Amino acid sequence: QLSDRYEFAIVRKLDNCTIGGTSLNQISRLHKTAGGGIWLNRKYQGMGYGTEAFGLRIRFAFEQLGLRKLENGYFAGNQASWKMQQKFGYKQEGIRRQKYICPATGETVDEVLTGLLREEWIDFLPETI
């Protein structure tokens, strides 16, 4: 029985310190799709750790699990997340208006929905290896 969820720690090689995590969830064997996400300690953002982990997660999903599509999202305004997803070929697919409430400000935040098809990812492989 294959899992419908995978959780991966992002561990810095230098000191074996866990600095974040990434996941695949809501895996549909029927449709060959999955959702997922990534989080990274702020102090390690912008250093390439998240991009490397995100790329490995995508490779695992397509090559090991045989999925055909990954679905993701990001908070509207989080351009760093969108930029990272674009590196692998993700496309914007829609917006969930006022999906979340920001705990820090109490303001509502839209979620931008994104998706990546296996064949689109293959087109980006030379740039991401």
TrEMBL record:
One of its GO terms (cellular component) is cytoplasm. GO terms for molecular function: protein N-terminal-serine acetyltransferase activity; protein-N-terminal-alanine acetyltransferase activity. Residues 1-119 form the N-acetyltransferase domain. Signal peptide: none annotated. InterPro entries: Acyl_CoA_acyltransferase, GNAT_dom, Ribosomal_N-acetyltransferase. It comes from the Bacteria. Coiled coil: none annotated. This is GNAT family N-acetyltransferase.
